[in-house]
Amino acid sequence: VQLQASGGGLVQAGDSLRLSCVASARPFGNIVIAWFRQAPGKEREFVAAIKFQGGHTNYADSVKGRFAISRDNAKNTAYLQMNILKSEDTAVYYCAAGRPAWGSVALSRLYGYWGQGTQVTVSS
After folding, report:
1. How far from the centroid of its chain's Cα atoms is residue 99's Cα?
2. Per-residue pLDDT reduced to its tens digit, 37-63
3. Can you tell me the distance from the alpha carbon of 92 to that of 75, in angstroms, rounded to the nearest whole number?
């Protein structure tokens, strides 16, 4: 499975962006699509995850209430709607696919497929 992430850009604090992650093959079974981000000088951190079948979601505390992850099964695509963006959201955002146990979706090492990353820059 290949993943293609897009939708990043330069925005001002308080603005919104929607990231997309297109999979080259239809996700099936208990596959999970997740978004991670990595800011300069920092480790990659979990942002959000969605179980492609069933639609269960999980969010990092730092983005709860501002970000929403969703998927479109027909388009093999997952989205990350980011609202009320803050300067601390500035990072390269990566989408990933794998089959982690639901209680471990925040662990990047459990994902076998990664997109190329898309830069999100939020100016204050």
Report:
1. 15
2. 999 999 999 999 999 888 899 999 999
3. 24
